[in-house]
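Might I ask for a little of your time on a matter of protein folding? The record follows directly beneath this note:
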Amino acid sequence: MKIATLIARILAGFAVLFATTLTAQPTPFNISIERGLSTNGLVTGTISVNGQEIGKTYENASLKIPAGAYTGLLRYVSGHNFVGGPFGTISKRGDFLVEISGVTGGRTDILFHGGNRPYQSRGCILLGPVARDPGSSIPSLDNEHPLRKLRLLFYGTDVPNSTPDKAIRIQISDRVGPEHYDLTGRWLRDDGELVSITQNGSSVVATKVVPGKSSFLKATDVSWQGEYTSNSFRGKGQKGDKNGRRMWVPVSISVQDKNTLRVTGFSPDRTYKRSDFGVH
């Protein structure tokens, strides 16, 4: 064999090896957490996978981990019912539980698991409450639960026969933008109506305490509600008539400052002033 031919074959072999090495790189599995409002010790946000939003997140405001880039590790065992499996099953053993690795201060066991209350997290990222099957009382996830979506996006099927070669990368970002306020408390409308606003994360509900003179709704009825994701947000308001009929209409809520709200969409538009001076 000529030397030139031998060298050519060796170079071709190296080229194949190099190409194989390139194709063997793990597929990126990018999880992004965009934090939003912090209310009553609970930070709400959204979770996306490779740019696709799949649901809401909940964190303990005082114990949340710093924003930044992290590596995700796949776990199969937990001391709690945190590990996902086929068809929405969730238990202490399974094939899908993501742990956030590399958290400062040597913190470990920072997981993605179920829940939506501050006391359910010591730094973990919660993806919503987990229901129990009405027949068996076994914890289970419905098709729209973010934990179930996360597992399905990772494996590509509900019943995988192997673990895909994917690199789990996690990016957590703190909210930036104008100041938001805790709207919880009593608010007086410009026609004398008094409402009580409750806020759970970004969810805001205004319930009538003393209906206005022109209102056909009664105390304890919901006046309006919406998702407080910016200082001007959309929602729905409830109206009634003298025949007892109810209807919902689109409204827009503008948070002008910590003590003033403007709701448009009713006729006429309404202004609310905080009546408890910030004491809840």
